[in-house]
Design goal:
178 residues, mainly alpha
Length: 178
């Protein structure tokens, strides 16, 4: 059969199950997809699958496994020259570092993600990087820096015409107080 087609189908099924919070099924689909992507030599397929596996592990609070999956994904994204993949993975690694209490490392990773997203004119992702980083800061009780990142996100969402997103980010910043 068509191993590459099967791999992409399994990856897509994993994404659906992840969205539905059926994480064991998602992980099984991702593991099978990863195996097939390796067999056909698709580094990009492997990278996206590892990134998705990292997301599941991060959600499950398996932070070391998530870190390893993201680092392997980042290596593969660099190999194939995918700036978007690198940027998204760096943003995920930044949020993970923040969860682990490594604030300086987290900020450095976020800055790298923002630089790459900016280089490819993906300002939606820059705003979302800031927004998601602010959410993690909020969960860690760090309201002042969270407020700053929510406001940065709001400013960018406004610039690209996403008023509802901007309004949401400003509301979250307001909830952080002064």
């Amino acid at each position: 059969g068509d191993n590459l087609g099967q791999a992409y189908t399994l990856q897509a099924m994993g994404d659906v199950w992840q969205f539905q919070k059926k994480l064991d099924q998602a992980m099984e689909a991702y593991e099978n997809a990863l195996f097939l992507f390796k067999n056909v030599g698709s580094n990009l397929g492997q990278a996206y699958t590892l990134q998705a596996m990292g997301d599941v592990w991060q959600f499950q609070k398996k932070l070391d496994q998530a870190m390893e999956a993201y680092e392997n994904a980042l290596f593969l994204f660099k190999n194939v020259g995918s700036n978007l993949g690198q940027a998204n993975t760096l943003a995920a690694l930044g949020r993970l570092a923040l969860l682990k209490g490594e604030e300086e490392k987290a900020k450095t990773l976020l800055d790298q993600a923002v630089d790459l997203h900016t280089a490819i004119n993906d300002f939606y992702s820059v705003a979302t990087d800031y927004y998601n980083f602010a959410l993690v800061l909020t969960n860690k009780g760090k309201k002042t820096p969270a407020r700053s990142y929510f406001l940065r996100a709001a400013e960018l969402y406004d610039k690209i015409g996403l008023e509802n997103y901007a309004q949401d980010a400003r509301q979250k910043a307001k909830e952080m107080g002064m």
